[in-house]
Amino acid sequence: MNTGKSIALVAILFLAISLNSLAQQGGQFRVLVFSKTAGFRHQSIPNGVMAIKKMGEKHVFSVYTTEDASQFTDENLAKYDVVVLMSTTGTIFNEAQKAAFQKFVQSGKGVVGIHSATDTEYDWPWYNRMIGAYFLAHPRQQTLRLEVVNREHPATWHLPVNWLWTDELYEFKSLNSDIKVLIQADESTYEPAKAMGAFHPMAWYHDFEGGRVFYTALGHVDAVWEDADFLKHLYGGIWYAAKGKLPKK
């Protein structure tokens, strides 16, 4: 083999190993993907977990996954910058785990909720305020117009104002009035179950008790986990939750 080519090959291999090592050691930040369910279990959860693992490799952050709520202790959560609630459902935490999760958020860390993260912990008012709303209902899967009402957030920088989307479309109750809406559903473009009217948020963020929270109602169908726009939307939310970096106005 040509000496020059050999050196170049070794350099490329070294760079790949170095980047992988950086990701394993923590990279930009550390993410815990939590996908425990105590109610309905979404078929797309494995697709979502794998997509975030690949996202971590691409964007050089580390991803750890679990369905074990006993991982929610002060000591263990201190290792992470963001907890991603991957379509969790039902009552998934005991009192000690709830206390550790609250302390995690209040220490300035981030939370990302995906799809049925709002179909979780109905008897825990703190969780309702933190995640931003509770699930109410959904119609059959349909295509609709999503209106991107805020394109100044990293989760929506890349999106058009009018985003044609197909998914299971959530409707909500017990909305936290402090959430900052990023995307709304245009109910005139599909058949809702109970209808929320003109104000129908589908993605939002807010600062909460010292931490940062991002939520997207999208993510039910398997196909969305291969959609480039959705994955950029989600990565923008994770990056915001980890770093808290928004454009200066």
Question: What report would you give on this structure?
Answer:
The chain is an alpha/beta fold. It has a single domain (29-243), classed as Class I glutamine amidotransferase (GATase) domain (Rossmann fold, 3-Layer(aba) Sandwich). Helix content is 31%, strand content 24%. It has 6 helices and 11 strands. The strands form 2 sheets. A 9-stranded mixed beta sheet has the order 2-1-3-4-11-10-9-6-7. The chain has a two-stranded antiparallel ribbon with strand order 5-8. A hairpin with a 2-residue loop joins β10 (201-208) and β11. The protein is globular and about 50 Å long. The chain starts with a helix and ends in a 6-residue tail after the last helix. Mean pLDDT is 92; it is low at 6-25.
Structural key phrases:
alpha/beta; two-stranded antiparallel ribbon; 6 helices
Write the layout of secondary structure elements.
Blueprint: H1 3-25, E1 30-34, H2 45-59, E2 62-66, H3 74-77, E3 82-86, H4 95-106, E4 110-114, H5 125-131, E5 134-137, E6 142-148, E7 162-167, E8 171-173, E9 180-185, E10 201-208, E11 211-216, H6 228-243
Parallel strand pairs: 1-2, 1-3, 3-4, 4-11
Antiparallel strand pairs: 5-8, 6-7, 6-9, 9-10, 10-11
| Beta-strand proportion | 15-25%
CATH architecture: 3-Layer(aba) Sandwich
Count of beta strands? 11
What is the tally of helical segments?
6
SS-based class: alpha/beta
**Tell me, what is the CATH class?**
Alpha Beta
Mean pLDDT: 92
Overall 3D form: globular
The fourth-level CATH homologous superfamily is Class I glutamine amidotransferase (GATase) domain
* Helix coverage percent: 25-40%
CATH fold call: Rossmann fold
Model regions low in confidence, pLDDT < 50 over at least 5 residues: 6-25
- Rg calculated over all Cα atoms: 19 Å
